[in-house]
Design brief:
This protein has one domain: Nucleoid-associated protein YbaB-like domain (Ybab, Chain: A), CATH 3.30.1310. Strands 1-2-3 form a three-stranded antiparallel beta sheet. With about 110 residues, the chain is an alpha+beta fold. The two termini are about 20 Å apart. Strand 2 and strand 3 form a beta hairpin. It comes from Actinoplanes derwentensis. This is YbaB/EbfC DNA-binding family protein.
């Protein structure tokens, strides 16, 4: 038994695929361009990270001369961990904004 081909459904699926490709490109651009700034618990280190997770800047507030290496390492680990979490949060938020109104093909 031959199956009927629903041309309208196929056309809609092709259009939706193209729209997904466009949204994916928009999402990629937004993730690369959106930055988040986080600070170490003592506010001495600031890390700027993209939503993609790339560190684009690190700023030190105050001198390093009198800091203990172990203390500095703890602060650096803490702020880098926070930056990774902030990047993940930003990606999720951007994903919701870009793809949030996109409806599925289910039910067609």
């Amino acid at each position: 038994m031959a199956r009927e081909i629903d041309e309208a459904w196929i056309d809609e699926a092709i259009d939706r695929y193209r729209r997904i490709e466009d949204l994916h490109a928009d999402f990629g651009a937004a993730v690369a361009a959106h930055t988040v700034s986080v600070h170490s618990p003592d506010q001495s280190i600031e890390v700027v990270v993209t939503a993609a997770g790339d560190i684009v800047d690190i700023k030190m507030h105050g001198g390093l001369r009198h800091r203990e290496p172990a203390e500095f390492a703890r602060e650096m680990r803490s702020v880098v961990t926070s930056a990774a979490e902030a990047a993940r949060w930003a990606r999720e938020k951007l994903h919701g904004e870009v793809f949030g109104s996109f409806r599925t093909l289910e039910g067609h």
